[in-house]
Design a protein that fits this description.
It is globular, with a radius of gyration of 21 Å. A nine-stranded mixed sheet has the order 7-8-6-5-4-3-2-1-9, sandwiched between helices. Strands 10-11-12 form a three-stranded antiparallel sheet, with no helix packed on it. The protein contains 16 helices and 15 strands. Helix 12 packs antiparallel against helix 13. By secondary structure, it is an alpha/beta fold. The two termini are 37 Å apart. It binds S-adenosylmethionine and iron/sulfur cluster (SF4).
């Protein structure tokens, strides 16, 4: 770990990764859920039975294979995502954490997060996951309104979600939960009320996502049929602004478009993505970004759970794609990720990554216009989208890089 990481101590006493310090992260994808939510296009599947021991062996195999390529890197985070990884046997999580710690040096404050569903979250399992080495929980609450939960196809009630958050708070020092806003008919006053209730249960971190309609989901069909309508752009912008203002006033600053945290409590794992650091992605459909000998590669594993499993058993990895990223692509990806962050893109790291400064990548006239309109800002160290710019980031990026 570099001195830069250790120097800046958070108020909580935890070291904060300094801007520009991307870390080296491990993502493990558990692709199973108890049911499929109608809005969700994640690689998640419902199965009657999953052979946990067999899956554990396969993850360990892929882990060994990935470690052989990246010896000596200091692991700064592990993230069990899904799907619903709180359904995985805690022993499997324990074995993966233990093997990862044996294969790489780990940062002293390594962050190990597990995503949990309120429905699959008995306290006993939380404790087992903590004993497995997990030190941060991220819970899919989605809403504190029972009618909204029903619309979202969730199997839990608001009361159950709050009970799960309370149990998480009793077991973990660090936890976060997810909420979804801009639901049909969603009004600012009702959302502010819901945020108020959420804040009463919140810890150091909240993820608040705007509902999006993804191709291939049940919502895509229903929305296309006219079964429901989403709030218009102005209402969505008001809801976003209300989120930022209310959570900010409570001390949870908006450090990324959808993520809010107390200073020092940002998700270190997700910062690695947004700062365009290296991460290994293991498990069905997982993506990775890997720098080897100065070249950067995008990797991807086979998406179908059973095919992934069989391929790993046969070949030690189910990597299906390894694409060399040209410097222009590296620059583009780094801008797309980094402008999501309040801190923006570190200019020195950008030049090192893309082989040329940011100015060479963006449309100069558009950048001047956006800066005049208060949507982007340059400092000697960083290039960033302002609060207003992040609220309409798609349009800002389109103007900057097409
Ligand atoms: C992999 S899921 C979280 C873990 C767990 N499976 C759960 O649902 O409780 C990641 C999060 O992405 C968000 N999400 C997924 N699809 C979304 C969509 N179409 N619009 C907005 N948020 C979405 C949800 O808040 C969800 O909790
Ligand atoms: S939102 Fe979570 S529980 Fe629902 S289908 Fe997606 S991954 Fe599974």
């Amino acid at each position: 770990m570099s001195a830069a990481i250790l120097d800046a101590a958070a108020p909580s006493g935890r070291p904060v990764p300094a801007p520009g310090e991307p870390g080296f992260a491990l993502y493990v994808h558990w692709p199973f859920c108890l049911s499929k939510c109608p809005y969700c296009d994640f690689n998640s599947h419902v199965r009657e039975r999953v052979d946990g021991a067999r899956w554990q062996r396969a993850y360990l195999k892929e882990l060994e294979q990935a470690a052989a390529e990246t010896p000596g890197r200091t692991l700064t985070s592990i993230f069990f995502g899904g799907g619903t990884p709180s359904l995985m046997p805690p022993e499997a999580a324990a074995a993966i954490v233990e093997r990862a710690r044996a294969l790489w040096p780990a940062a002293p404050d390594i962050e190990i997060t597990l995503e949990a569903n309120p429905g699959a979250s008995e306290a006993a399992r939380f404790r087992a996951f903590r004993e497995a080495g997990v030190n941060r929980l991220s819970i899919g609450v989605q809403s504190l309104d029972d009618a909204a939960l029903e619309f979202l196809g969730r199997k839990h009630s608001a009361a159950e979600a709050m009970a799960a958050v309370e149990r998480a708070a009793a077991v973990f020092d660090r936890f976060s939960f997810d909420l979804i806003y801009a639901r049909p008919g969603h009004m600012v006053a009702a959302w502010e009320d819901e945020l108020e209730r959420a804040l009463a249960f919140a810890g150091e971190h909240l993820s608040v996502y705007q509902l999006t309609i993804e191709p291939g989901t049940a919502f895509h069909t229903a929305h296309g049929r006219g079964d429901f309508a989403l709030p218009d752009q102005d209402t969505a912008a008001d809801l976003y602004e209300a989120t930022r203002a209310r959570l900010g006033a409570a001390g949870l600053h908006s450090y990324e478009i959808s993520n809010h945290a107390r200073p020092g409590a940002e998700s270190r794992h997700n910062l690695t993505y947004w700062r365009y650091g290296d991460y290994l992605g293991l498990g069905p459909g997982a993506h990775g970004r890997l720098t080897l000998g100065g070249a950067k590669f995008a990797t991807r594993r086979h998406r179908a759970p059973e095919i992934w499993l069989e391929r790993v058993e046969r070949e030690a990895t189910a990597e299906t794609e390894r694409t060399l990223l040209a410097p222009e692509e590296r620059g583009r990806e780094m801008l797309l990720m980094g402008l999501r962050l309040a801190e923006g893109v570190d200019r020195a790291r950008f030049t090192a990554e893309a082989g040329a400064p940011i100015e060479a990548f963006v449309d100069g006239a558009a950048a001047r216009c956006l800066a005049d309109a208060g949507l982007i800002a340059w400092t000697p160290e960083a290039f960033r989208a302002t609060d207003a710019g992040r609220q309409r980031l798609d349009a800002v990026l389109k103007a900057l890089v097409g």
